[in-house]
Specification:
Blueprint: E1 18-20, H1 22-28, E2 32-37, H2 49-62, E3 67-73, H3 77-89, E4 92-98, H4 107-114, E5 118-122, H5 124-144, E6 149-151, H6 163-179, E7 185-190, H7 194-205, E8 211-216, H8 222-240, E9 252-254, H9 267-280, H10 289-302, E10 310-315, H11 319-323
Parallel strand pairs: 2-10, 3-4, 3-6, 4-5, 7-8, 7-10, 8-9
Antiparallel strand pairs: 1-2
Length: about 325
């Protein structure tokens, strides 16, 4: 299928590997597990956000913007990736973050400072209540300074960022063909919805034939995500004059693995992170991939995925967020030697 892609800037190291989790698959039992290593899209700009930013920043450059404004949590992978991309391309980056910092910055926040992003902090209630207003205020501020700012929503999750995982499906189709299998399920963490939205559109356009499931790791519920994903698909169809019947596409969000809230993980998630690290040498994080992979294991154990032969898990990165929560890891409880 020939697809006309919008403005794009090359940021990620592609294609990323698709690797089998042989030992873990045997240990868990059930379908064969594969991991799409989007934690390897780069170094400082690793993770799923980089695929989306290729199109978001591509649009910003097409509009001749010199400043990027975006938002997220204190340990936002997306904000860190945007800050580093901005430094690489010579663009000013302004991040406004949910939460107030305590002590010296670490993890993603440390890297935000390191690469020179401008940071503003807001208590969660004000952040949620005034997010669109804050965007508008910052755009106006930079306009007064003679700069042209481009707004990227949280996670780059909109009809522009959607292209990131739509194109990833073309790559994934080639991966699966090379390994000689067709994926029954493609599973990702759903935190702002953009990765899952792109996968849903890409799965349909590139005819992978898989079911796309997002495992909710955010405080929003499945119904909220389904509405947002559907709205972003419609906005994408209208903006880019696509002919895909987006209202016919299935949107599946699995609940039950958020734990105490976004960015907060309970001991079983850290145990899963350690298990996967020691079994396969793959590093997950407690905000996105750790929760989602923990959910995937539990769903396999429950028999919900008994009809599957091959499952692909999208590793969306997050190692810097793990480093910010290293004190939560109890190695004695998982057999430290």
């Amino acid at each position: 299928m020939t697809i006309s892609y919008p403005a794009r800037v090359s940021l990620a190291r592609l294609p990323t590997p698709l690797e089998p989790l042989e030992r873990l698959s045997r240990e868990i039992g059930g379908p064969r597990l594969w991991v799409k290593r989007d934690d390897l899209t780069g170094v400082g700009v690793s993770g799923n956000k980089v695929r989306k930013l290729e199109f978001s920043v591509g649009e910003a450059l097409a509009q001749e913007c010199d400043t990027l404004i975006t938002c997220g949590a204190l340990q936002s992978n997306h904000c860190r990736a945007t800050a580093i991309v901005g430094a690489r391309l010579g663009l000013q980056v302004h991040l406004f973050l949910r939460g107030l910092p305590q002590g010296a910055p670490d993890g993603n926040l440390f890297l935000d400072y390191l690469v020179g992003a401008k940071l503003s902090y807001y208590p969660p209630a004000e952040y949620y209540a005034r997010r669109e207003e804050i965007f508008a205020e910052l755009v106006e501020k930079y306009a007064r300074d003679g700069r042209k700012a481009f707004v990227i929503p949280a996670g780059a999750s909109d009809e522009i960022g959607l292209w990131g995982y739509l194109t990833a499906c073309e790559e994934l189709k080639a991966d699966c063909k090379r390994h000689g299998f067709a994926p029954d399920y493609i599973i990702c963490a759903t935190g702002s919805g953009g990765t899952q939205t792109g996968l849903i559109a890409g799965n349909a356009l590139h005819q992978l034939g898989a079911t796309i499931w997002g495992i909710n790791v955010d405080d929003n519920d499945a119904a909220t995500f389904k509405r947002k994903i559907r709205a972003d698909l419609r906005a994408w169809k209208n903006r880019y004059q696509q002919h895909l019947d987006v209202d016919a596409l299935s949107i599946e969000v699995i609940e039950g693995y958020v734990g105490p809230g976004y960015g907060k993980a309970e001991p079983p998630v850290f145990e899963t992170i350690t298990r996967v690290g020691r079994t396969e040498g793959i590093i997950l994080d407690p905000v996105y991939t750790g929760k989602a992979f923990h959910g995937l294991i539990k769903e396999i154990e429950s028999g919900r995925l008994a009809d599957a032969s091959n499952i692909v898990f999208i590793h969306s990165g997050g190692i810097f967020g793990l480093l910010a929560q290293h004190s939560e890891l109890n190695f004695e409880s998982v057999g430290s030697q």
